[in-house]
Structures are given as C-alpha cells and as structure tokens.
Design brief:
By secondary structure, the chain is mainly alpha-helical. The protein has one domain. It has 7 helices and no strands.
Amino acid sequence: MNYLSVIYEEHLKKNYCIGIFAIGGCSTCGCNEIRTRLFDSIVKELKINPEETGTREYFRGLGNVKNTKLLQQMIENLCQSLNLLDEVETRKIGNIPYNSDTPRSMHNSILVFIILEIWNSLRLIYKENQREDALKYLLELTKNDVVFRLIESMDRHFKSHHFRRDPSENQF
C-alpha cells in the first residue's frame, strides 16, 4: 500500500497537525509528527540509513536533509508515490472537490502539506533566484494530473500575491 494513503488514514484517526495559520508552520509543534512520519516512510521505502541524511533524531524531515543527492532521491520517491495515487485517492487526500483544482481548505489538505514539504526542501538544491528551475523540476516529476494542476494553481497564487519582480530577492 502507498505510504501516503497510510499516512492519510492515520490522519483521519489521530489528526496530525499540519499547521493552523501557515501550512507546515505550527509554532507549537512545528508539524513535527507528520513531517517525521513522512520522512520515516521515505527512508524505509528507499532503504536508507537515516543517519546518512544528516538529520537529527527529533528534526527528521526533508528540509533538514544535509546530503543533497540523497534529498533528491527522497523527493523523487515522494513524487513517485504521489504519481501512484489515483484521482479519487488524490482528491480525498487533498480535500479537493471534483469540480475544482484546489482544496476546499488549504489548511486541511495533507496534499498541500506534502507539496509544500517538497517545495521547501528544494531550497536546499536550488538557489533563491532559481525558483522557475525548481518549479520546472517539480512539475517534470509530477505525473499525477490532480497534483500537477494543484501545483500550477499554487504557483499562480504565489505569482499574483507574493512574487518579487527583483530576481535578487528570495523567490521561494
């Protein structure tokens, strides 16, 4: 079974914190429980020794992986797991109605959390002024149509509300 489906089913039972005001940015717990659960699932699937990632025991997450080659493998595995979800499962995990490309609520979407986990970890591979390269890479890895459209929607939102015209400024 796809580890993303398992994590989602666990979330339905014990409700992982994915952030209240900012997705993945809880000031109390740092969304550590789901971040660690996701990290451990990827490590297990890839048969990686967690110590090779350079993360500390409590701060296990994609954004803390020190080895960029390993991080890239982990991102690719996570995207592959997203690609294996069918449309029904993807919409369920994403809280996305059938007549939309976006969730009913971004703050209640495990899928949005996962996409942002990937995106935030790409900062360790790409420089601040390489946002478009990072986006292209992520979209190339994404074969799941629902996920692809959601990423495009999130990108449009960013560009209409947060994009900085000066490429020397942080674009992530």
